[in-house]
Every structure is written in structure tokens, then in C-alpha cells.
Design brief:
six-stranded antiparallel β-sheet; 2 helices; 6 strands; alpha+beta; disordered N terminus
Amino acid sequence: MLMTQSISRGEPAKKPDRKFSNTFTTLTFATLIIIAGTTHAADRVVIHFADIGSITSWHAESSEELFVENTSNQWYRITFLPPCQQLPFAIGIAFEPDNLGNIDKDSSIVVEGERCYFKSIEETVAPVSKKAAEE
């Protein structure tokens, strides 16, 4: 059933419902915020299932830089703030994943009793040692 509004001459037109207008504006704004948040979340780099062996290899380039490889042969570059002093001399490291077993920029590692917090994590290609590059 199609509903129409008839207006007779001499009757003022109804003003738009202000409550509806405010609600519509609020919903539109909320939708834009959700879309912007989703886009930002999509850029977040995560190494999944680190707690069950998805990290197969790692290479410490310095106290500020660590490269890790997952089971899909994807390499990641992790930086630390402050620098992880024991990292260049480590023979083993322990990753501290989140409750889902994932590693992201909010994660950390433990090296010789020193907890080292990530500054950033990004996908990269296999590392080339600075020493090898100099030769």
C-alpha cells in the first residue's frame, strides 16, 4: 500500500521530523567511523599461531632489529623500543603471544631474562646480513 501525504491549500507544510534527522546523522557518522576503523585494522601485521610453531626461523641483525620467518616462508622485520641488549648474542628467544597465540606490534620477546617490547612489525623479504652485504 502506497501512502501519500496530501496538503491542502492554506495548510503549512510539515517540518521534517528533527528526531529522525538527528538519528540518521548519528548512524551515518557511526558507519563512517566503523569503516575507518576497519581499514586501519586491516593494515595491522599479525603472525598467526606463533604459540604452536608457526615461526620456523629467526635472525637477529642487531639489538634493535629481528627477522622471523613463518611456515609460509613469509619473513617479518621486528624492531624494538628500547633496544633489546641481549638479542645479538642470543642462542634462543621466547615469543610472548597474545591470548589467541598471535604476535603483533603489541607483543614482546624474552631473551636471557630480558623482556623486549616490539616497536613495529612489518612484512619483508628474507634478510641479507649487513656483514654479508659489506663483503
